[in-house]
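Objective 1.3, modelling of assemblies. Example input:
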Amino acid sequence: MPAGRTVPVHPIELPPGHPRYGTGVETIDDVGEFGLIARVLARLPLTDPDTLVPSGDDAAVLAIPDGRLVTSTDLLLEGRHFRRDWSSARDVGHKAAAQNFSDIAAMGGVPTALLLALVLPGDLPVAWVEEFAEGVAAECAPLGAVVAGGDMVRGELITISVTVFGTLEGRPPVLRSGARPGDAVCVAGRLGWSAAGLELLAAGIGGGDEASVGGTMADFLLAHRRPRPPYAAGPEAARAGATAMLDVSDGLLADLEHIAAASEVAVDIESASVPTAEGLRLDQVLTGGEDHALVATFGPATPIPAGWRRIGVVGEIGAGAPGVTVDGKPWDGPGGFSHFGPRE
Amino acid sequence: MPAGRTVPVHPIELPPGHPRYGTGVETIDDVGEFGLIARVLARLPLTDPDTLVPSGDDAAVLAIPDGRLVTSTDLLLEGRHFRRDWSSARDVGHKAAAQNFSDIAAMGGVPTALLLALVLPGDLPVAWVEEFAEGVAAECAPLGAVVAGGDMVRGELITISVTVFGTLEGRPPVLRSGARPGDAVCVAGRLGWSAAGLELLAAGIGGGDEASVGGTMADFLLAHRRPRPPYAAGPEAARAGATAMLDVSDGLLADLEHIAAASEVAVDIESASVPTAEGLRLDQVLTGGEDHALVATFGPATPIPAGWRRIGVVGEIGAGAPGVTVDGKPWDGPGGFSHFGPRE
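Predicted structure (tokens):
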């Protein structure tokens, strides 16, 4: 299964006193299913020249001029991947689209469309769903992506399922398995910002009160709420001849393990080269997820494209299994994350 | 949004004393995320000649030889669309795939692949997920469809999000909007069987005890648990020149309203012509959902293809709005369903 899961440093839990949904405002129950669908559709980009049959029939029909479809799917759960008191509905809409589109970019592709399936409590304010749709639309807009279909069902907790499509524009896909000893390991985008923002929120800083924090702290909060994947860097890396690529959803080191395993190589990261920012700790940069940076490897003779930064090197597998090291040593700080297994 | 929602005659509710998940058996928490993924993947068809990059990288890459993609998405929630004491995990797997593939057939398409995103409680037995996967695989097998990707996340209640793909094999899609006055209204597949099965289960008959019921009652229970959409009838209708088509997920009359509205026509159903079976009431046949029969309209000069049965006629819009009548009169029995709005 595509491994583009988001990984909070602190798993989000709803506090015991978390308020129920809207009271005294217009709720989903008030407007009914068809009213809600109409309100959501009015806010989404539903068609483009490749949309042969838009949402509204039994299924949509999309033109696929490249003859190949890049696709991935992800789930976001309230209380697990977002909290409504930490992120606005618009933030959640941005994030739901971004974390999925990032998987397309990580193949060297360009996002073209998404499908959106929502579980929604009947007492959720309609405004939340409208603003969520506006966030999705705003993330789609600069990419020209459309919402090609969806489903909405009543349930207890907001659950968002996004399936994304993209095109390779004639290029071969960039897999995780193509890294070779001697390749440069490079990154595009930010690392650790989202994790730092989540830590601030978990510490009670910045929840709904942007004015109370400033400078980089406000940037970290924003980065957690609305990740900004470097979409264009994916196709650029593909054009430049990247040998392997993925998006950093679970943390740099954890995700590089996938390249190491799939390519049967070792990877060493030079900690001094990894992009950081004032206020970030090294463990946040190396293990924080959800920024959706892209990591790619390039052959030793390949010029590293603009927007990419060299942070390490691919090596032969040593005595042990394929693996990832930092400055030549195993990383012994925090890292890794599992959705199941004994509670983190 | 594609309207392929399933519609129980009785909305399913978990009883207050509904048992929690497994105790004393191997649970998801016991095997962890990667263990679970491996166990699920081992049971799914993951690749075919059109699978250029299978599940396992950031995204899958599928060849789309037709140059057009048919796609739709649907959600199933435990307690809303199924109960684990009424349906086996294998039943739920069959149903999750079938209700979505049916939307592809309803466009005249052939299902090719699906993506599967699951919310799973940590204390759910691993065997449930394995058997669910086997049900999905068994529904895919005769179609040659593959599972091209997925996601699994821990949550409180089993939630299944399925996105399906299909191909039109060079044919134009059959929309809801093409019915014309004089067209024959035809059905392929069963009507009312699933609703009858659900009524039996709601009445406490047949829950996990197949031997206690026989004959058509057992068939109705099976029809509810594992709908059998007439997949081949969709492309056959398209080849024969169907003017409009959809799948009956919400009930014959409710779904025909979509054709009537999209085509701006009236539809009259001859109740004596509608296929039924011993033990079915007319209201079950006309308003029961979830069998995923296909309904299509054919021009007056078009021979009705094998496997299709004429049940009514398309007419001009009369004095009122477009609409559906039975034997020339509005249907005044039960029908209709909304996912939101005051609780059904």
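Chain B touches chain A through 83 residues (CB under 8 Å).
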